[in-house]
Write a structure and sequence with these properties.
The complex is a heterodimer. By secondary structure, chain A is α/β, with parallel strands linked by helices. Chain A contains 12 helices and 11 strands. In chain A, the strands form 2 sheets. In chain A, strands 7-6-8-1-9-10-5-11 form an 8-stranded mixed beta sheet, sandwiched between helices. In chain A, strands 2-4-3 form a 3-stranded antiparallel beta sheet. In chain A, a hairpin with a 5-residue loop joins strand 3 and strand 4. Chain B is globular and about 85 Å long. The longest helix of chain B has about 30 residues.
Chain lengths: ~425, ~625
């Protein structure tokens, strides 16, 4: 309503000035922007650097695990620290947090256990890319393009989803904030023909002019010819205003959500802001690095534990913050591959094969660990050294896209892969 | 004084000279653009926009003479630029070996310290951080050098072509640690010297460059074990290199992106890494992209079997001593010496490096390649839609001249299509073009820090930062969207405020004279200087307006109140760029913090650079 008043009056003032208000004729502008996020939302979180799945979702029921990882293995549930009380708040328990008698979570993931218990969270194990590459570069490329072992793919699977979805006749023109990545450049996963926004922070999404220069700049784009640049400019100013009226600066997380002070948490908090601002967000992406733990990764405490602490607290804060809205949201985590089953010579782990991911949301059939467990005996390992793959990552993503977002055309989103089969029933 | 300036400014803005009456001899009467437009057009297409005084120079010289001169860069004196670059960006001239010894890889430093028997102490960590920081410095130099050249080189067309080929034969800085050491060689020794030479020479130089061999994995592609190797006596005279296949452990340990790929100092682990890295067989990556992206194009009529056989022909083309001097070498042991048929050409069994050489000759002279390269060049120079008739003629020139790039470009930039009304201002500037053209317009000093590179990255085009082998798109749609307009506007404002390195607010030539002029003279001066005198009447009115143009009616201001236009975040901001570091760029906001205060002339300049008109070339 407000916006329409502005349009009308603004246009009149332009006419008074003798300017040619081309923008009024522009369908996009006259149409109005989506008033709220009625639809479903998907949040993709990429752990860059190959997260050590075996110490994240711990197969504590597998004796081989402790033989392969004598120093860095996460002890069985209930194990108490021999030393002084731990810093994890959980007295001095250093063991895995049991999930189902066989798998457990790393002790730093206590906030996620809560989500698991509430039925909101489902780990998927032995999942990943079938490519045998152990290059971060290639594997991230494959996971984001959704085409393992094919480097020629120019777009990412999330963008292909948007593009395929965008072709349906009844679809409304999406909001400028339909797909947002919290990154300085558009990540590979969102590259492609569908419009997306990449920004390091919501604070960036502003015109850095003072006083009435903002209006002058806006007028520059709202007058003149109705071409590509003017059209995008007009949409930009709509989007800036939309975000401003949502007033992210004053944002207070709900439900006592307590975001850690980290870049990753800031990204998640801003995703929550966008969702609650009803600016039409459908797909959000953020990433977090530091998982390439070749050296001294630690066990219940240490390098990886600290990473996981931030990871779990950030996600848990997001879930708390979104509250009821989680009924429309699915969060999926991913990492390019897992790490070697056996610890290396420097208290770390080298590049491996299959990994684990988390699916979180109101529609998720949580409180269950998904995926066929391949075992860790030598002959069960991939190339004799890594966790074997039993679920292709595309199967999980396709199931979420289809059941949660109602996507059609998985053969276009994941070309050359039959993504309609083998669904785990995770949502 | 100011009145005179106004008259001059208006004159430049309003004069319309029909092409055929132009005394400077700007070509045949069939050109649709006026003589004035032709000058602006060539400066925006064959150069990165005009510098102060350049319009007048080209106009005086005559457009066709200027084009002719630009097509012969070797005859253009460019010593000033060369000297500046040599003294400010030494890394851009260094060999991979020199770069590696001066800016060692993080892993290498770690290994060296471990070898001295030291533990991973705090001191070590500091050392690694310093190594990493130095690494970023030299990557920054390589980017800043390209920007500086585009800004100050007199050989503008040569530089436009170098940027074109660097994008056509795209490589990615974060492919793995070694790649960054190959970039200087790639730009200076592989691409630039051949940017206007024969396409086949360029293609072969790229095929043999460590940068491309590493980026598209050909360096580790070897014959499948079922395929025949060369007979022992056929290997005579070939440079074998001791123990080529027993690669030194840890040679490329920790191939992770950026600096977090911590190598493993322990020997057993290194052996595992080495085992991982050992070539396992044929890698089709380069073979495929050679056909699809570098030569024939995706519709170039090749089959998957051609891809495989192209890759087989190129087995053994690898990198010698990749951690030292990193030079091309053909390794006979890796080569698949079996018979192959590529694109209908039979290659007999028992041959070595000549397989790959013949392949490159076949694809470089293929009609599909002529067409594919001609299309991309027409798109770069003329318009996104690449008029077919001109593509046909450019492809014919390509074929007739045995792939002479200079002649293909000449066909394009002297054509009627090039000087057509439809082509004029039809291209959207890429972020690189936007930033460089703005800096040229104000006569900026080249930036010796990586901040301008970081701005270009912020605008969506990180240099050496396109991950996929297809390079950045060259069509307007790809660059213009909601977020990108905002960044472009903010860049214009920062530039006008003197927040961009090498640029001082009102440091451009006419600024002093205009400083005390009336607003309308200032506006016309800015429009003449930065918008080629071609602002729309609306734009001129908006620049003229001393008051809020939308606030004429009080009701107009709805969500946009004066308070609203304050910077959204006061105080602490977090505008760090995630992902910037892995591309070798500084983190932190390259445009500075908050909103710059602009008034008077700087305000008009900021608005002009933020205007739609400046986004086109």
């Amino acid at each position: 309503m407000n916006r329409r008043v502005f349009m009308k009056a603004g246009a009149m003032s332009l006419v008074t000035m003798g300017l040619n208000p081309t923008f009024l004729r522009r369908a996009v502008f006259a149409q109005g922007l989506p008033g709220g996020t009625k639809g479903k939302i998907l949040i993709c979180l990429f752990q860059r650097g190959a997260a050590d799945a075996l110490n994240i979702v711990v197969p504590h029921g597998e004796a081989e695990y402790y033989r392969l990882r004598p120093n860095i293995g996460i002890p069985r549930p209930g194990t108490l620290s021999a030393g002084p009380a731990g810093v994890m708040g959980n007295a001095n328990s250093v063991g895995a947090i049991d999930l189902d008698g066989f798998f457990g979570l790393h002790p730093s993931l206590a906030p996620m256990k809560e989500l698991y218990d509430r039925g909101l969270l489902a780990p998927v194990h032995a999942v990943g890319s079938p490519s045998n590459t152990r290059s971060h570069f290639d594997a991230q490329d494959y996971m984001e393009t959704g085409t393992p072992d094919n480097k020629g793919t120019s777009d990412g699977w999330l963008n292909r989803y948007l593009a395929v979805r965008g072709t349906c006749a009844e679809c409304q023109k999406p909001s400028a904030f339909n797909a947002v990545a919290f990154a300085s450049q558009t990540p590979r996963i969102l590259e492609g023909p569908a419009p997306t926004i990449a920004m390091a922070s919501l604070d960036d999404f502003t015109v850095r002019a003072t006083g009435s220069d903002v209006q002058r700049l806006e007028a520059l784009y709202r007058t003149g010819s109705a071409d590509l640049i003017h059209g995008a400019g007009a949409e930009t100013f709509d989007a800036v205003k939309m975000l401003k009226s949502a007033n992210p600066q004053q944002y207070q997380p709900a439900n006592g959500a307590n975001y850690p002070n980290s870049p990753f948490a800031r990204s998640l908090k801003q995703i929550a802001q966008l969702i609650k601002s009803n600016v039409g967000l459908e797909v959000a992406f953020a990433d977090v690095g530091g998982w390439d733990t070749h050296v001294q990764q630690g066990a219940a405490t240490g390098q990886l534990a600290n990473r996981l602490g931030d990871f779990a607290q950030s996600i848990s804060a997001l879930v708390a913050d979104l509250g009821e809205k989680m009924g429309d949201v699915v969060i999926v985590t991913m990492s390019e591959f897992g790490r070697m089953a056996r610890q290396n010579g420097t208290g770390g782990t080298d590049h491996g094969h299959a990994g684990a991911l988390f699916v979180i949301g109101g529609e998720v059939k949580g409180h269950k660990v998904y995926g066929k467990w391949p075992g860790l005996a030598r002959e069960q390992l991939y190339e004799g050294r890594d966790l074997a793959l039993t679920t292709d990552f595309r199967t999980v993503f396709a199931e979420i896209l289809s059941k949660h977002l109602g996507a059609h055309g998985s053969e276009k989103i994941f070309p050359g892969f039959d993504a309609k089969q083998g669904w785990l029933g995770v949502v | 004084m100011s009145k005179l300036l106004t008259v001059v400014a208006l004159g430049a803005a309003l004069t319309i000279v029909p092409a055929f009456t132009n005394p400077a001899g700007t070509g045949p009467a069939t050109r649709e653009q006026t003589a004035d437009e032709q000058v602006k057009h060539v400066l925006n297409r064959l150069a990165f926009g005009p510098r102060p005084g350049e319009y007048e120079r080209v106009r005086a010289m005559g457009v066709d003479k200027w084009i002719d001169a630009q097509l012969r860069p070797d005859r253009i004196d460019d010593r000033a630029a060369e000297e500046f670059i040599a003294s400010h960006f030494p890394a851009a001239r260094m060999s991979p070996g020199d770069l590696m010894s001066q800016y060692p890889m993080v892993n290498a430093a770690q290994l060296a310290r471990r070898a001295q028997g030291k533990q991973l102490t705090r001191e070590d960590s500091v050392q690694f951080m310093q190594t990493a920081r130095r690494n970023y410095q030299f990557i920054g130099q390589l980017m800043s050098e390209r920007i500086a050249r585009a800004e100050i080189s007199e050989r503008q067309l040569d530089d436009v072509m170098t940027e074109f080929w660097l994008n056509h034969f795209n490589v990615f800085v974060a492919k793995g640690q070694p790649e960054r050491y190959f970039l200087a060689d790639y730009e200076s020794n592989v691409i630039r010297p051949r940017a206007m030479g024969k396409f086949h020479d360029l293609l072969e130089a790229v095929a043999k460059s460590p940068a491309m061999l590493f980026y598209l994995d050909n360096w580790e592609s070897m014959r499948d074990s079922t395929r025949p190797a060369l007979a022992q006596d056929n290997r005579a005279g070939m440079r074998l290199g001791g123990g080529a296949l027993r690669r030194r452990p840890g040679a490329f340990g920790g191939r992770g992106i950026g600096m977090n790929g911590m190598g493993d100092p322990r020997r057993d682990s290194l052996m595992q890494l080495a085992a991982q890295r050992r070539p396992k067989g044929l890698n089709e990556n380069y073979g495929r992209e050679l056909l699809e992206l570098h030569t024939l194009g995706v519709d170039g009529g090749y089959t998957q079997q051609d891809v495989i056989n192209a890759a087989r022909a190129l087995t053994g083309w690898t990198i010698d001593r990749p951690r030292q001097d990193a030079e091309f070498v053909f390794r006979a042991q890796m080569h698949d010496a079996g018979e192959k048929i590529v694109l209908g050409h039979a290659m007999p069994a028992g041959r070595g490096m000549e397989d790959g050489e013949e392949l490159l000759r076949i694809v470089a002279t293929h009609p599909a390649t002529a067409r594919f390269i001609a299309t991309k060049l027409v798109r770069r120079f003329v318009s996104d839609s690449a008029p077919k008739a001109l593509v046909d003629r450019a492809a014919a020139t390509f074929t007739r001249t045995d792939g002479d790039i200079r002649e293909v470009v000449r066909t394009i930039v002297t054509s009627d299509e090039f000087f057509s009304r439809a082509a004029y201002k039809s291209k959207v500037k890429s972020p690189f073009e936007l930033v460089v053209s703005a800096r040229r317009a104000v006569g900026a000093q080249p930036d010796t820090t990586p901040r301008t590179a970081a701005i270009i990255a912020r605008l969506g085009q990180p240099m050496y930062g396109h991950q996929a082998p297809d390079g950045y798109p060259d069509v307007g749609d790809a660059w213009i969207n909601t977020g990108s307009i905002l960044n472009r506007i903010n860049f214009g404002l920062a530039l006008a405020a003197g927040r961009v390195p090498g640029v001082s607010a009102n440091g451009w030539p006419d600024a002093n004279a205009l400083a005390r002029a009336p607003r309308d003279s200032q506006v016309d001066g800015v429009i003449r200087t930065f918008l080629r005198g071609e602002a729309s009447p609306d734009t001129r009115k908006i620049l003229l307006s001393g008051t809020n143009p939308l606030a004429a009616s009080a009701a107009a201001v709805d969500t946009l109140t004066a308070d609203d236009t304050e910077p959204m975040m006061r105080g602490k901001q977090n505008n760090n760029l995630p992902g910037a570091r892995k591309l070798g760029l500084p983190s932190g906001d390259p445009l500075g913090r908050g909103s710059p205060q602009l008034s008077g002339l700087t305000q008009i300049v900021g608005l002009a650079f933020g205007a739609p008109e400046f986004q086109r070339r």
